[in-house]
Design a protein that fits this description.
This protein is α/β, with parallel strands linked by helices. It has eight helices and 13 strands. A seven-stranded mixed beta sheet has the order 1-6-7-8-10-9-13. Strands 5-4-3-2-11-12 form a six-stranded mixed beta sheet, covered by helices on one side. The structure holds manganese (II) ion.
Length: about 290
């Protein structure tokens, strides 16, 4: 998805942070909490002032459905890109932060996990918006039910080039070096990465850019076979699996294209909701698979 040729002068070389070409490790963390219900899940909004209809849908989502919810989980790629927490200076980014803050001040717990597009959104963004930062991957308990949340790009382990890039840009030292660059230089760098990403994607087989069945099975196995929710692939679906004799579910969130679309969880059931003019269809159900 990304090529690894671009690097900034003071950032560590890729070879310095990737001893081999093994898939990036998935960082595990746990939130032991009981967020209020209903909980709403969104990902891949890719907000930018270049897509005002989608941005408007997000503001309407925050002032409408979110205000009726107990908690909201934004699972990455909220922004088309985020060049660093000093990027809150732009009018658009500031308006998003302020709209989030209105929701959080009103008492809705809003959780945010970075995606590949906005992985530099950190404490500064959290402070400006009132969101609570989550690690990728994180497990969240709702009563007796455990949901495992991830952006999803860490599960696309068949795409070795992308995983090498992911490991580099998630390296703290690399990020610290990157953030010393002027904001304009960072924005230019990200623009180039986006262009290269589009070029690289067009030359890759679709399966390579989807999650790896083995990576999903390994993740579910290591967490006691919970329900997994992620985005990133823009392939909305509800998959069911039988893993080691345990029935597991994987919900893939859709990206936003001019209207709001989210997954709602009431503590027992999931439903797909949308502000699109036509009623939302449930996510396509993928046939039951099994994985060892
Ligand atoms: Mn993504």
């Amino acid at each position: 998805m990304f090529q690894k040729k671009i690097s900034l002068s003071n950032a560590p070389k890729l070879s310095e942070v990737t001893p081999n070409d093994a898939p990036a490790p998935i960082r595990l963390a746990e939130v032991v909490t009981a967020p209020e219900l209903p909980a709403l899940f969104v990902a891949d909004l890719h907000l930018t002032d270049e897509r005002p209809q989608t941005a408007a849908a997000f503001f309407d989502f925050l002032s409408g459905p979110v205000r009726q919810a107990g908690s909201v989980f934004i699972l990455g790629d909220l922004f088309e890109y985020w060049a660093g927490d000093d990027d809150t200076g732009s009018a658009f980014n500031r308006s998003v932060c302020e709209a989030l803050r209105v929701a959080t001040v009103a008492g809705v717990a809003v959780y945010f996990m970075t995606g590949n597009r906005d992985l530099l959104a950190g404490q500064g963004f959290a402070h400006a918006s009132g969101v609570q930062l989550l690690a990728d991957v994180v497990s969240v308990r709702f009563g007796t039910r455990t949901l495992l949340l991830s952006h999803g790009d860490g599960l696309c382990t068949d795409d070795r080039d992308y995983q090498a890039f992911r490991l580099q840009v998630r390296n703290r030292e690399w990020q610290a070096g990157f953030l010393t660059q002027p904001l304009d230089a960072r924005r230019n760098f990200i623009e180039k990465v986006r262009e290269q990403s589009e070029t690289a994607k067009s030359g890759k087989r679709a399966e390579i850019m989807d999650v790896s069945a083995d990576a999903v099975a390994a993740l579910l196995r290591s967490h006691g076979y919970p329900t997994l929710i992620h985005g990133h692939t823009h392939r909305p679906a509800r998959h069911t699996y039988l893993i080691d004799g345990h029935r597991c579910e994987r919900h893939v969130l859709p990206d936003w294209r001019g209207h709001a679309v989210w997954l709602a969880f009431d503590g027992a059931e999931f439903s797909v909701r949308s502000t699109a003019p036509s009623p939302p269809a449930p996510f396509p159900q993928a046939g039951e698979g099994s994985s060892e």
